[in-house]
Amino acid sequence: MADKVEFELVSPEKLLNAQPVDMVVVPGSEGDFGVLAGHAPMISMVRPGVIDIYEGDRVVDRVFVAGGFAEVTGTRCTVLAEQAQPVAQIDRAGTEQEIANLSEDLADAKSDGERAEVEAKLAVARARLDAVAAGAPAH
Prior knowledge:
Blueprint: E1 5-10, E2 15-21, E3 23-28, E4 31-35, E5 42-46, E6 49-55, E7 58-65, E8 68-72, E9 76-81, E10 84-86, H1 92-108, H2 112-134
Parallel strand pairs: 1-9
Antiparallel strand pairs: 1-2, 3-4, 3-6, 5-8, 6-7, 7-10, 8-9
Helix pairs in contact: 1-2
C-alpha cells in the first residue's frame, strides 16, 4: 500500500470516491498535475476538467469536475469539487444544447455581472463537452 495514494473525491452532496490508487491526475488552475504516493504537500484550485484515475499505467476511471480545490499530502489527494460527474454519464446532446442556450443568454446579458455569470457557466459546459469528446478510458 506504500506505493498507493488515498484518493477522495467529495462533492457538496456526498463522498463520491474513496480508494487507494496508483496515480490521479487533477486539472489544477495552473495546469494538470499528477499525484503519486510521496507527493509534496500542496493545495491547488481545480479548474473545470477531467480527473483521471490510474491503476498501474492505465486510466480506469474519468470524472468531470466543474472546479473546486485539491489538497495533497504524501499519502492522500482530496478533491473538493463544486460538481462532479463520471465522464461516461455525460449527455453529449444535452451539453451541446446547454452551450447553445448559454450562448444565447450571453448575447442577451444586460450587465457585466450577468455576462460574467453566464461566461462561467459556458466555460464549465464547454469543458464538459471537451471531456466527453476525449472519450472513455481504454480498458
